[in-house]
Amino acid sequence: MPSYHTSANQVAESFDNVLTTGALGLGSVLIAQRLDLNAAYAEAAVIRRQAAVVRARRVAAAVAAAAEVRAGDDRLRDAILRKAIAAKRARG
What we know:
Order of helices and strands: H
Low-confidence stretches: none
Distance between the termini: 128 Å
Number of helices: 1
Largest sheet: none
Radius of gyration: 39 Å
Structural class: mainly alpha
C-alpha cells in the first residue's frame, strides 16, 4: 500500500532523507578517490626517491672512475719521470 504524505513537513523530510543519503554516498566516493590519489602520490614519491638514489650512485661511480683515471695518469707520469731521472743519473 503506497505511503502518502499528509503534511508539508513529511514531504520536506522525505526530500531531506534522499538528499542526505545522496550526499553521504557522494562523500564516500570522494573520500575513496582522495585515498587512491594520495596512495598514487605516495608511490610516485617512493619512485622519485629511488630514482634519485640511482642517479646519485651513477654520479658517484663516474666521479670515482674519473679519479681512478687521473690516479693512473699520475702513476704513469711518475714512472716516466723516475725513468728519466734514472737515465740522467746513469749518464752522469
